Amino acid sequence: MTSFRFVFLFLSISFSALAQKDYKLWLQFDKTANTVLASEYKSNIQGIVSLENSETSKIAMKELENGIAALLGNKPEIKSEITGEKNLIIASQKSLTPDLQKTLQDDFSKINSEGFLIKTISFKNKKQIIITGKNDIAVLYGVFNFLRLLQTNKSIQHLNITDSPKTNIRILNHWDNLDRTVERGYAGFSLWDWQKLPDFIDQRYIDYARANASIGINGTVLTNVNANALILTPQYLEKVEALANVFRPYGIKVYLTARFSAPIEIGKLKTADPKDPEVINWWKNKAAEIYKQIPDFGGFLVKANSEGQPGPQNYGRDHVDGANMLADAVAPFGGVIMWRAFVYSEHDANDRAKQAYAEFQPYDGKFKENVIVQVKNGAIDFQPREPFHPLFGAMPKTPLMMEFQITQEYLGFSTHLVFLPKLFQEVLESDTYQKGKGSHVAKVIDGTLYQNKLTGIAGVSNIGNDLNWTGHPFAQANWYGFGRLAWNPYLDSETIADEWLRCTFSNDENFIKPVKKMMIDSREAVVNYMTPLGLHHIMDTGHHYGPGPWVSDLSRPEWNPTYYHKANKNGIGFDRSKSGTNAVSQYAPEMVKVFNSLETCPEKDLLWFHHVSWDYKLKDGQTLWNGLALQYQEGVNQVAEMQNVWNKAKKYVDSERFNEVKMLLEIQQKEAKWWRDACLLYFQQFSGKELPSGVEKPTQTLEYFKSLKFPFAPGNG
Ligand code: BDP
Description:
This protein has helices at 2-23, 35-44, 55-72, 98-103, 105-108, 136-151, 203-214, 234-247, 262-265, 277-293, 319-330, 355-360, 421-428, 441-445, 476-487, 493-504, 509-530, 561-565, 589-596, 606-609, 624-648, 655-687, 702-707; strands spanning 47-50, 77-79, 87-92, 116-123, 126-133, 160-163, 169-173, 219-221, 253-257, 299-302, 336-340, 371-376, 400-405, 456-460, 571-572, 612-613. Helix 3 runs parallel beside helix 6. It is of the alpha/beta class. The chain has three domains: 20-163, 2-Layer Sandwich (Chitobiase, domain 2); 169-495, TIM Barrel (Alpha-Beta Barrel); 528-574 and 611-707, Alpha-glucuronidase, C-terminal domain (Alpha-d-glucuronidase, C-terminal Domain, Alpha-Beta Complex). The longest helix has 33 residues, at 655-687. Helix 8 links the parallel strand 8 (219-221) and strand 9 (253-257). Beta-D-glucopyranuronic acid binds next to loops.
């Protein structure tokens, strides 16, 4: 009995220790095995001192203290003032001694209000390391950055880092409902426990804020874009206030989604017409009420007249009328309106890809100063691959923010390992040519192309109450990578993968090298086994889980996968060239030229822009049919290779996370085959051709794949 109890106790202790690894994200702070680093630390830092006493600087100091203790195995000496040399000093500009302020004067001119300096300085002939910025939040960013140097085995011998975020709003969009279900959420239920708020503060809220601060995220939209007006009632606002209070010391502002019809639903008005004086007043009062409780409230995110959501068009008004009315309401308090451009009308099914541009581009220059238009990365909808959205660069007088989807609605949910920063980078570095060569999407987003003051990047969150936050241990890397790219949209995805792996798992090069490659390749793998050569939106309908290229019976044409691939006896693909829907014309002339012709259109986007015959010769000499089939097979092979790499990583990873990833990769392998077999069997009906050699025979019939139903697939309301 006793020994049984002992075993049980032992098991539960080791379980919780391991489970914590899942929970701790990239903030593991495992003791470093690097003796050079440890001795470098000892010879450069004797004590740490904070010259400031705000809540945020206390958090920063605790992070340093705990982080260093865990990484180096002994607690650093905490000093109350700068004495002698080799101090690690943290303080914001205003709390520095006048001497230090003077020493760093030039450096301060190189950073913005959220930027930080980490410098080795000689001060009164004594060597010190200083982490500073213009305010305490910036210092907190600096502290996390300094800790990352230690986590990733970087030298701290001669530090001279100046770093500032390139965008103002770096924000997560939670598509979380008030009943805690999460639209397109695959990591459990919502973190926000509205029932227990405001009195019960879950430790997770603090850990969430901390994780975000560690990568520079400074905003969170708590609620779904398909909004519920109740969030704007006093009963809920006090809960929102409680969350805002938790997040504030971590530099995170709270935003809410505004349901356009809220004045009717909770305000008892007869209309929500944005030109109606009572409606205008209602929103003004609502904003004042919110700001009284949450003085640093960020503002509203709005989905209007899209997929059935109410909006200004219900009253014969337009997006500008709606956005500007709300902008006026929050302007006195410094709030912003993030107005989404994700619209497609039920009245014009000619080409859904053209609609956001057609509707929004003519509004350029018409929005109020505190409105930013939030545009998805591509013109359809968060597909494994889309060409960049034609609105980027096409609205020089309007700030545009990027909307990426971190949750994997169309990329295998949280069971597929796909490293999204690779996808994000591809979009950000696309050249729009809208202001000549070099007009990259990143420059639209960071405001440098057209000198916009208001800038931002949003990511649709993949976070839920799963123990590991994101469902798949590697999906944590997508949260991390999103934050890093929001801070600096020019970062390379390999750098991000490298950092994340070191902070999350191990610094061992034998682990880093192959696993980093696996992450980088994972994006192309998912494109290959789901939607190669520019195919898109052929997922099964509603829940978007698995393949459904055959679906053709939904009431709106653009809801059907058949609308997107247009496969027939002659070929496959959506003709968006000048001889087709002419969607290409929404791009700059240089890109029109590239996309419009079969010869110059990149093969990765071929079937996005062209309907191509089955016998068309690809660049490698294969026919389109053979090439398509081989790419599906290639995707499956790539997943097998990922499994190989992971199996060899066993000795570098704790058993729990190792096994989780192993099981998930097995699912991914099964599902990659499912995608390949289902799509090829279906398209084969049109091509009428045999599978080329090298492509495995399908294991089931098309009828079998069509019969699969998933009534309880997650994330689908
Ligand atoms: C689609 C999702 C839907 C969202 C919509 C949006 O399927 O759940 O509400 O995007 O972004 O991709 O508004």
